[in-house]
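Here is an idea for our session: we take a single protein and study its fold together. To get us started, please write out a protein record for me. Start from the sequence, derive the backbone structure tokens from it, and show both lines together. Go ahead whenever you are ready, and we will take it from there:
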Amino acid sequence: MAPLDERCPFINRTCTKKFRDSSVSGVCSVLTGAESEPVIICPNRLYGEDYAVLGHVANLAFGEGHRIIHPNEFTTVRHDGRNVVAFGHHFGKELRLPGQGRRGNDFVDWVLARISHSGDLSDFVAVEVQTIDTTGTYYPEVVELRQGNNRINRSKAGLNWRNVIKRILPQIIYKGHVLRREPLCSKGLFFICPSAVYSRIIENLGNNLLPYNNLQPGSITFMWYALSGPEEGAFKLHHEGTFSTTVDQIALAFTSPSNLPPQGVYEEAINAALGQL
């Protein structure tokens, strides 16, 4: 939880999560009855240790030894082929993906652009960062914590898994196809999320996605994180795993699900209801 000065220690800015009355939430992870570990609910929590997740992506996409730089540094640093300019969250504006035949524009959270020795764009990858929304409210519990009560009741707030799945998968598929047509996007889209969100996505897709570890145009790479600890009074962000597949695999699993209930379940339910009339 953000301290009383309402400053997020992970992005070194004022906490961006707000309640309906516009007061600062300060909550970046929650523990619900259905989960055994705290679940990250704010994307900013994934940016700890000076946006370390971006370095993880850069080293996986471009090779070990690359460094993330701010757009403001582009004209001042020496280019040796290992600089990666990050466009995104507090690193400059998000880059738009203009969509022909679609209203408005789409965004990716991050674009990591590798710069050549000559200072030109060499190649790039896109990065999406997704956590999960909550249902209900944990406002009363936050008030108690701020009043110094560390023994609060369990919140009735929940996690909106269905909404996350409905929004995430179509976005991954659409943006994956857009990026595959980009000549310089040879390693595809990276998707950063909490471990619990990744588990729900894979479960929703049937747990049958084929791995494609050779990154290629159209690759979708999931990288998931969880909180470990607490250590010295604080939870630490821990990279738990990486899985790469293709946008085609995800699209097929999404439109032709294999994790279906047995045939006849509707008939059985109808007959059971009729028998009670």
Remarks:
- DSSP finds six helices and 15 strands in the chain.
- Residues 161-180 form the longest helix (20 residues).
- The mean pLDDT is 86.
